[in-house]
Amino acid sequence: xxxxxxxxxxxxxxxxxxxxxxxxxxxxxxxxxxxxxxxxxxxxxxxxxxxxxxxxxxxxxxxxxxxxxxxxxxxxxxxxxxxxxxxxxxxxxxxxxxxxxxxxxxxxxxxxxxxxxxxxxxxxxxxxxxxxxxxxxxxxxxxxxxxxxxxxxxxxxxxxxxxxxxxxxxxxxxxxxxxxxxxxxxxxxxxxxxxxxxxxxxxxxxxxxxxxxxxxxxxxxxxxxxxxxxxxxxxxxxxxxxxxxxxxxxxxxxxxxxxxxxxxxxxxxxxxxxxxxxxxxxxxxxxxxxxxxxxxxxxxxxxxxxxxxxxxxxxxxxxxxxxxxxxxxxxxxxxxxxxxxxxxxxxxxxxxxxxxxxxxxxxxxxxxxxxxxxxxxxxxxxxxxxxxxxxxxxxxxxxxxxxxxxxxxxxxxxxxxxxxxxxxxxxxxxxxxxxxxxxxxxxxxxxxxxxxxxxxxxxxxxxxxxxxxxxxxxxxxxxxxxxxxxxxxxxxxxxxxxxxxxxxxxxxxxxxxxxxxxxxxxxxxxxxxxxxxxxxxxxxxxxxxxxxxxxxxxxxxxxxxxxxxxxxxxxxxxxxxxxxxxxxxxxxxxxxxxxxxx
Length: 598
Hints:
- Helices cover 33% and strands 23% of the residues.
- By secondary structure, it is α+β, with helices and mostly antiparallel strands.
- The protein has two domains: 7-208, Beta-galactosidase, Chain A, domain 5, CATH 2.70.98; 211-597, Glycosyltransferase.
- The chain is globular and about 75 Å long.
């Protein structure tokens, strides 16, 4: 049985429309073409090499492997030291003009290194073996709507249903290979000048990175997180996927495997705020415009997530032919949670547009119309039970965090009227804000335990309760907030990291545990900072940064028992929270304080 590559052993390259994951050993094991949410043509990450991969690696096992991104870019550089010499592989995807290219350049650094190349293309998530032919300078693979061309000077041969090559690279020599996707009815692509493509790609990323305004002690992880967010942005629309992968498990061997190649509304507040704070106004504006287009329609039809183009139909399917990452099944595409009712997304939507307005992003004429319509819906819907922030697949409940975010929606609407002289029923919404606040403090707080609880009438804790001071619902030093913080530290942390909640079939309808949720752990950093516990906050923040892999990437969760990253990778939400907390330290205040000043 093939041993799966650890999630943290992958690096990402991309062209801001899709992304590829490449292992330390030089195997490109995941790539969807032409978009993030398209079917994968390399799916070995969720199966075996027979489900599609592109391997370029030394014949002999290297004595050491070192990799890094070239400066503040998304150009990946992997160096292999062998007994006979040293070789380097450069991997990148040029920002897309028309063609979709993956470029891999093998360069000799020292001595002589025998290399091997294996290309196994499988369309539709590893299920379709394409028809392969040679056309002049190209190898062409085609099946249905897809065609992929490999341009190389290497001598290729077929072995089984793969294309392989054996070659040698010497010091100073460069051997480029270019993979290009095109619709199967289109003509072959023009040759790519790889040297020019490399220099233009490096220049493009460096120019983008230079916009960053952060100058604090954690500049390197902040820049890498911003580059990762840019890599997860679908340039034509401005939408950002939560991650470029599907079905990487929250528990190794478990069933908590979801498709994250979509845009979550709740990520909007955090993402837009991070981009604006770091100096990326055009990206923030594009994200806001995607948001307004995606949610257009009746507020009652608002979804928690959409496709990268604003698509609403995200039908969930299981791919039975894929054995899953480390036998974690089922492998899913689509996401049934898109049809859930989650009250908190209305608060996150309102907060997103509020923050954009307060931070100086030029007003969009549709923004207030959308917000007004949301408020009219919330006036009658805020008291309904829902599935909550964690998209539980059990019964609906009155989740405390959901009610807090309903309060956020009303609070931001009231502030918009008060500060920007927008039109709306101010007195009525002020009264509603007070009603929700009073209910949460009465029904969502357990005085006997001195803590807020996960849902009304329950006793369980929830990592989302750490958001209470971060959105300004109560001050961080309020005794009820401090009691909740102590309870979460006592009951929801393992080795200093925070769980979302204690999993149980009764709550979410799913068996098994999961890893520590990294965004919740960053929220703990912010709470500690707000509470005046700066040194503890700093230690935890540096611990979280230390969980990044060797090229600075984080997944959604961390498995303390196995000391491994788990969940989809890289995860936008984790990197957004890393950025927010860094700015909090830099200004000696947390994102919460800045929001409360807004």
